[in-house]
Amino acid sequence: MRSLQRRFNETVNLGIVEGVNVVYIEIIESKRALRMQARVGGRDPVHSTAIGKAILAYLPDDIRQQILPPRLRKRTPLTLTSITSLDAELASTRDRGYALEEGENEEGAACIGAPIFNEGGDVSAGISIAAPAARLGEQRRHEIAPVLVGAAERISVTLGFRSAR
Predict the structure, then answer these.
(1) Is the pTM of this model over 0.90?
(2) Helix (H, G, I), strand (E, B) or coil at 160
């Protein structure tokens, strides 16, 4: 996480799903004056965060259905509030290998999230890079995403995960 923060100078979050929320268990903040700030122990709805979507995308359908409430709470005008639209976004997340959140949890904020897998091959956590949306445009996302996914893969291997690749 520190390596990611030093390389991109943006906030790096590590989170898990608990109930219908993402709980932040570690945060390394950007050194910039304008930065995204969460707090360790803080919670955000799983469906409106990049970490949450990265985790949801790799959960078995039955577990995902148990986690998600029938109505998805709107945090901003951009929050996905239908299960159908969220399912489509989760399919895109699986195709890319990482999740995107653009103003869905907090207006003006953006985030890229990647899943972390445990020894049994189950998704157990997620890692993300968060920044003001103005600093996380398409070109910057393409620069950050493969590095973030690589970091998530290294963490997963440290936890005992063995990729099928």
Answers:
(1) yes
(2) coil
Q: Which amino acid is at 12?
A: V
Q: Which two tokens stand for residue 60?
A: 């078995």
Residue 60 backbone class (left: φ over 0; alpha: ψ -120 to 50; beta: rest) = beta
CB within 8 A of 119, min separation 6: which ones? 159, 160, 161
Helices (H), the chain: 2-8, 50-56, 61-67, 83-96, 138-158
pLDDT tens per residue, range 9-34: 999 999 999 999 999 999 998 877 66
For the chain, what are the domain ranges? 2-158
Tokens of 144: 């950050």
Supply φ then ψ for residue 58, to 5 degrees. Answer: -110, 5
Class of domain 2-158: alpha beta
What span, in angstroms and rounded, lies between the C-alpha atoms of 36 and 43?
14
Which string of DSSP letters, residue by residue, matches 99-145?
EEEESSSSTTEEEEEEEEE-TTS-EEEEEEEEEEGGGS-HHHHHHHH
